Amino acid sequence: MVPLAIARQTVREAMRRRVMWVFLICGVFLIALGPVFGFLSPRDSQTVLRSLGLAAILLAGLFITIVTCIYLIPTEIERRTIYTVLSKPVQRYEFVLGKFLGGFATVFINIAAMGVVFLVMIYFQEHKIPPEMFKGVLMTFFQMFLLAALTIFFSTFATPVVNFFLSFGIFLVGNLSSVTESLTTNHNPIVRFAGDTIHYLLPNFGNFNIQNSIIHPVTEIANENIFIRNNIVYALIYSAVLLTLAILIFDRREV
Amino acid sequence: MEKVNKRYPPDAVSRSRKLVPAVVVLLVLAIFFQVLIDPQAKEYHKGEAGLAETGTGLNNEFLILPLLGFREAAAGLLWVRADEFFHSGDYDAILPLVRLITWLDPHADNVYVTGAWHLDYNFTDTQERSDRRYIPPAQALLDEGIRNNQNIPDIKFEKGWQNYDKIKDYPEAEAAFKSAIAGPKGDGSGVRGTDDYPYAAPIKTWHMLAHTYEKEGRIPEALDEWQQALKHTAEILKASPQDYPDKMLYSAEKNNYKEMLQRYHDRYTTTGHDHNINPTAYPAVMMPPAGTKKVGPWDVAFQPKIEVTRPKVLKISGAFNSADGARIGVRISDWDYQARPLTGAINRFDVDQSQTILVDSIAVKKAHFEREMDMSQDPKMYSFSAPTYRIILYYDPRSTAPFLQDRFGWNGEGITNDNPDRVRVDQRDRMFGTKLIDGQGGTGPIWDGHTAPWGQFGQPPRLIMVTYKVTREQMLGLKPITDKDIIPNGPDIPLNE
Amino acid sequence: MATAISIQGLTKKYVDVWQKQEVVAVNNLNLEVQEGEIFGFLGRNGAGKTTTIKMLLGLIFPTAGDATILGKPMGDNNVKKELAYLPEETYFYDSMTGWDLLDFYARLFRIPEPERRRRVKLALEKVRLQPEAWKRSIRGYSKGMRQRTGIAQALINDPKLLFLDEPTSGLDPIAHAELRDIVASLRHEGKTVFLSSHQLADVELICTRVAIIHRGKLLKTGTLKELLAGEHTEIVVRGESLTNGTVGKLKAVARILEGEGTDTLRLSSDDTEKVAAVIDMVRGAKGHILAVTPHKRTLEDVFVETVRKEDGV
Question: What is the mean pLDDT of chain B?
């Protein structure tokens, strides 16, 4: 109940941040722009709307996740509100979990809002809402879940600016999973070691990008449901790793 | 300086004793799932090129999207840009874009299709002749698209279509259409949720396969495909009996089927137009033409002549004794012209400008054909940098018009030439058509017009063909091209490159 | 009376890794605070007051020493149910209303409805925040209203022990007086207050015991009375008759500072009753009272004197 109370309060604060609204409006604008590009290329209007829409959701979701989560804990410390919270019978892990849940709930609300706009656009264009659209948005949710955990983890010890570059950088590297995977079989032992380290230890964001099979419905992932399930389980486990580390660090953090 | 140790609260210390092992266990679990995911992800990303390759061709505004994992969005925007180049006619600029897009998004089926079509058809000389050097990369692009998209019939269909229509390599077209029909699993079952489900390919694929079989002279299979198409369309009509396009389709299929049966009857049965029994091996096509009594293959008396009127301008003319509408194929190339090996580079669609190849045809009118092939205006297409050239002039009964086939047969059974060296029988396995009622000698059963008495293969196409071997000097008009330059037709018939 | 806070040798050193400097924020602090006391914790800015409180609450961690709070080790999560903390200059979540803020803090104590509503209302009433402001966002609050809200959040769990860090600084005189009275009233409810302040007048008015901390070191601790020791009244009397016999009696009641053997005496006493007795005796002996001068010491005198002495000024 305590983490939920903190999460609830976190959402209220986060939803008031102007920068979040800027990204949300940009995202919605990009989604709404999809059909315009579609008119330029009528043969591919469906592909363009779908890919641009999903990209806009991901891009706006990415920035909303990072700018929301990097400030959650540092702001509390800067404004000393954390003193009033931690001096109450609130365990530090409850505080970290509450902040994470609140941060992700904010991201969830934003992605859901953009998702609704996107689905409405799809409906106008295709006169139906193909079920695979939901799969894409679901994967985006869990990708952002993992990213939120990563950002919260860094925010237990890094300043917001450092955190921004760390989270963004790891997101980029983690998106190159197909590249890092190929490094794990490199002939050079040093490259292979680096590849193994990056590929298996850093969070793997690239596997959540299944836009292809959504944009091109004929493209199938073999055992797609198992693939999606494994990735969701991966996101949950890896987020647990990050949050546990965050708790360990925050337990020793002087505020 | 003494070390300053902080004294943490007891519950934080006891918590870390539990959490540190938990982190290790969870991390091992995460790696376990990573290992589970990897093979599937690898399969999924098959065909995508690395950023090292795509990055070289992308400017910053486009690079950011694939960096973030939005490869398809970048591809989509690039394709919008390519569309602008189509409108402005900037055809060369489209090629690297096609390469980039298919690297970024190896499932962009219409980019493979449109890209290959663009390569095959849009690069021409001043006389609107296609640049055949673009055909190998176009085929390679389609093959890559097929490899990356086993589920998508469109690319396979396009490969079939381009081989049928442009390259006239019918066995290749047949294989492509067949693989589209077979679908990703090879058993004809389609992917649920796609337009063609339960079939793997659209109905037009059966139509094109039937046409292809006909061009191969494989008539029973062609008829079989028409029947398949009729069956599928009937099923579709069952679901929506009032659908007008489907009804029209059904009737067109029926007409095509009937027409082919009729053609079979007219060309190959022992019953002539006058319902008399014809005793020859190839009854209809051996019928004496109007006003003559001579029975047997028709002598077209092919007599070509090549004059070099100006450097790189060849006036090709001659006699070909057939009805109007026959076309004499012309193929002028480097003696050892070969498809350029492909590279993985971004400019892989660029052609080797030192290569020269021209493919065209000349219509026969009043048993005569004549046309000037001007290759002097397009030095980029016709550089003439090789020392020797191969000129092939030929008549192919398989790609000819139906009314000519009525006389010469699907395989040219009813055609011959006074100079037998100019009759080239293509004995390659892939070229054999249906062995019709060969060997019945007119003594076989009278065909009833319904049951198929065939089933054997072995009828090769008979081409009328002349090959010249000429030097660069001759091409430049420094020395005439005469019948002395005619050499025996080689075992290889490089007409479909 | 039970011990509310017991601090033994509490030390906090900071090490600046870059400059290789060691800063001692709190140095071997020993302190006892009894239940029911309003304990004044005095010190200049940066003396280590806030650092001490934060260590006691488990917000930061000592480098040496120990402390128990209400019988439990410091930082213990369960004991926090009985504690309250008002940090100095807190911004709070200023998009929330006063009511919502208190409701949020009440949730952290796992107080269920409808008890939560009752507690929130009670706390807001106790700090005399105007009810029309309850549902307005804190952003529009004046400094005094914010500080009232801050004390209200400290009262939400009906704590046994409150840590108040400069609760009255920066307020206008009226608000200042009101808040001071609210803090003073907590004593009547049997609460223990650990009041960190440099508002010496307030401390003198409401605290029972005081500790003075300077540069992390505890300089002085004791009841107000003990610290203000030395307060006395000087009486100057004259009369010939005093020399014969009365001096002896006077000596028993007050200290003779000078003039012994003359007819003018200067006496001193720190007891008002004894001063009255002296006056009665002098008058009874037909002597004259020339002057009665009370010499009063303030906490400020004590504080300045103590700090200056430590600094060697």
Answer: 82
**Cα A172 from Cα A193, distance rounded (Å):** 20
Q: Which residues of C touch A81 (CB under 8 A)?
A: 90-93
Residues contacting residue A227 through CB under 8 Å, at least 6 positions apart: A210, A221, B37, B40, B41, B44
Distance from CA of C74 to the nearest CA of A (A): 11
* Residue numbers in B near C75 (CB within 8 A): 9
Residue of C108, C109, C119 to mutate, testing the A interface (most A Cβ within 10 Å of its Cβ): C108
Chain A contact for C90 (CB, 8 A cutoff):
yes
- Which residues does residue B358 pair with via DSSP β-bridges, in sequence order? B332
- Quick one: average pLDDT of B429-440? 62
By Cβ distance, the residue of A37, A40, A222 closest to B43 is: A222
Q: Nearest chain A Cα to C61, which residue? A: A254
Cα(B361)–Cα(B369) distance, rounded to whole angstroms?
10
**Which of C14, C22, C58 lies closest to B9 in CB terms?**
C58
Whole-angstrom CA distances from C255 to B58, C251, C288 are: 99, 6, 18
List phi, psi (to 5°) of B302.
Answer: -70, 120
Name the phi and psi angles at B169, rounded to 5.
-100, 90
Subunits next to A (3 or more Cβ pairs <8 Å) are B, C
Tens digits of per-residue pLDDT, A117-140? 998 988 888 888 887 788 888 888
Alpha helices in B343-459 (DSSP H): 402-408
Residue B289, pLDDT above cutoff 60 = no
* pLDDT (tens digit per residue) in B135-150: 888 988 899 899 888 8
pLDDT in tens, C116-144: 999 999 999 999 899 999 999 999 998 88
Shortest Cα distance from A82 to chain C (angstroms)? 9
Option in A182, A234, A254 nearest B37 (CB)? A234
* A232 φψ region: left (φ > 0), alpha (ψ -120 to 50), beta (else): alpha
Contacts of residue B420, Cβ cutoff 8 Å, sequence gap at least 6: none
Confidence check: pLDDT of B452 > 50: no
Which of B4, B7, B9 lies closest to C15 in CB terms? B4
Which of A145, A44, A177 lies closest to B69, judged by CA? A177
Closest residue on chain A to B52 (Cα): A179
Contact between chains at C22 and B7 (C-beta distance less than 8 A): no
Place of tokens 């096609």: B98
The interface pTM score, or ipTM, of the predicted complex is: 0.86
- DSSP codes, chain C: --EEEEEEEEEEEEEETTTTEEEEEEEEEEEEEETT-EEEEE--TTSSHHHHHHHHTTSS--SEEEEEETTEETT-TGGGGGEEEE-TT----TTSBHHHHHHHHHHHTTPPTTHHHHHHHHHHHHTT--GGGTTSBGGG--HHHHHHHHHHHHHTT--SEEEEESTTTT--HHHHHHHHHHHHHHGGGT-EEEEEES-HHHHHHH-SEEEEEETTEEEEEEEHHHHTTT-EEEEEEE-GGGGTTHHHHHHHHSEEEE-TTSSEEEEEES-HHHHHHHHHHHHHTT-EEEEEEEEPPPHHHHHHHHHHHHHT-
pLDDT, residue B445, reads 39
Reading the block at residue A102, the tokens are 């609140």
Residue of A nearest to C62 (CA): A254
DSSP β-ladder status, C161-165 and B415-416: unpaired
Task: Give the nearest partner residue to C105 out of A16, A79, A88, using CB atoms.
Answer: A88
Query: Looking at the complex, does the CB of residue C23 fall below 8 Å from at least one CB of chain A?
Result: no
Report, as an integer, the average pLDDT of B469-476. 94
CA-based nearest distance B190→chain A, Å: 10
End-to-end CA distance of chain B: 83
Q: Does B292 score more than 70 pLDDT?
A: no
